[in-house]
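Why does residue order matter? Because the sequence determines the fold. Keep that principle in mind as you read this record.
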Amino acid sequence: MKNKVLLVEDDAIIASGLIYALEQEGYAVTHANTVIEAESASLGGDFNLAILDMQLPDGTGFDVRETLNADTAVIFLTVVDDEGNIVKAFESGADDYITKPFRLRELLARVKRTLNTRDVNGRSGVSLGSITIDPAAGKAYTCGKLLDLTALEYRLLLTFALNKGQILTRSQILEGIWDSAGNFVEDNTLTVYVKRLREKLGSAVNIETVRGVGYRVD
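Structure:
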């Protein structure tokens, strides 16, 4: 079954590009230009994810957020990049926050990650080797002991866990992780982070290098 995405964006050019890209990725997209249209759409059924423009003709993305089911994941889009708005976004239950202009591949990667994380949040944890990951808390444990991971190391570990047994190309991994400022991690930096993660995980998880392709974790 396709994941249902509500896109609330009043810029026609941005909206058309996002609709096309999301549908190409297999998502069922409903588009709204205003808060009123979004409220009407939300009455017609539940959405797995809502991508909300912060500034709308008749209100804000926060107004739309209040009308959505609590289980709906939310990503805010905005031209405003200040700490106050970021904090308010996350306090309102947002899963992510992207500043315009943004790179389409980055947004699609964040959409995928947000939906994957929400899919496993209802479980007690995600297992990988002898590691247990708690996506809701953003923490990982080995033998009951909390692992001391940076935010990017945690996202890298979660990416491996959500794709257990699959070969991930370096490009796929890079699309799924980014630094705290929202910037893509450089390809050569990925090698460093994988090395650090291996050192911290020890024998708990085997991160296999697939030469010339990427990595695989079973």
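The chain has a mean pLDDT of 83.
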